[in-house]
């Protein structure tokens, strides 16, 4: 493959690579044919993404519009606030608090738990009646404009971690809804309640789901999870949850 520097004037490419993406697309493309040819080339946007600090994979899944990709506020950032209970219950809506309600606890052994790539010190614990909490994500407030969501429809990636208490059965629930401007449900992921037996070892499990090709009109994402214990014991012997994440991304990118 011929390198971009061999196709176009090196200095011009370097200058354009330093220009903000929106200005490149809306203004610079109309300057002349040569500028338009450079700006509309995939090779230029690979260079531009690298200059902006994106770590690109060896191979890129096609089709991928680099001009649109680089306009993302930030790839793969977690849109959920306080997912690991560092700030107690801040940013979470307590939809149901059965039994003794929700409780934030520290990880016991080891003191720091590695879940995926994150170090976790705290988790949310449920009680002997149903406990559910949620967040409503406004995509536009997060920087993802309506035309971006409708035209590119980036994958919406959901991940969550849950664990029962050792020697105590538990139930875990998850509900994710893609909502319109009027909060109408456009798509939903609501798997069956996961039931964990009392002879478990308290191990942590990850659940994940990706929304693909969900159509136009998505403006909000509703994230809800929780559960309870199976033994109906007083206290907080129900399922534990932490390290939740909700992000946007493209297949073929890290």
TrEMBL record:
Span of domain FBA: 69-250
Top-level taxon of the source organism: Eukaryota
Gene Ontology MF annotations: ubiquitin protein ligase activity
Gene Ontology CC: one annotated term: SCF ubiquitin ligase complex
Cross-referenced InterPro entries: F-box-assoc_dom, F-box-like_dom_sf, F-box_dom, F-box_only, Galactose-bd-like_sf
Keywords: Ubl conjugation pathway
UniProt key word Ligase: no
Pfam families: F-box (PF00646), FBA (PF04300)
SUPFAM superfamilies, A to Z: F-box domain, Galactose-binding domain-like
Keyword DNA-binding applies: no
Biological process per Gene Ontology, one example term: ERAD pathway
Protein's UniProt name: FBA domain-containing protein
Organism: Leptobrachium leishanense
């Amino acid at each position: 493959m011929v390198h971009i520097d061999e196709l176009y004037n090196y200095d011009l490419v370097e200058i354009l690579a330093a220009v903000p993406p929106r200005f490149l697309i809306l203004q610079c493309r109309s300057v002349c044919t040569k500028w338009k040819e450079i700006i509309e080339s995939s090779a230029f946007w690979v260079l531009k993404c690298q200059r902006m600090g994106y770590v690109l994979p060896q191979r890129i899944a096609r089709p991928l519009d680099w001009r649109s990709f680089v306009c993302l506020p930030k790839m793969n950032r977690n849109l959920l606030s306080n997912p690991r209970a560092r700030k107690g219950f801040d940013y979470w809506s307590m939809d149901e608090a059965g039994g003794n309600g929700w409780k934030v606890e520290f990880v016991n052994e080891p003191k720091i738990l590695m879940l995926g790539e994150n170090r976790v010190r705290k988790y949310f614990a449920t009680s002997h009646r149903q406990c559910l909490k949620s967040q409503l994500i406004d995509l536009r407030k997060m920087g993802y404009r309506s035309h971006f969501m409708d035209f590119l429809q980036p994958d919406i990636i959901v991940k969550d971690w849950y664990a029962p208490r050792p020697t105590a059965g538990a139930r875990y629930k998850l509900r994710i809804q893609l909502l319109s401007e009027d909060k109408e449900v456009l798509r939903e992921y609501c798997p069956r309640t996961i039931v964990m037996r009392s002879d478990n070892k308290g191990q942590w499990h990850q659940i994940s789901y990706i929304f693909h090709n969900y159509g136009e009109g998505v403006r909000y994402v509703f994230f809800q999870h929780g559960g309870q214990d199976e033994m109906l014991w007083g206290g907080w012997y129900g399922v534990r949850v932490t390290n939740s994440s909700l992000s946007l991304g493209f297949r073929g990118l890290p």
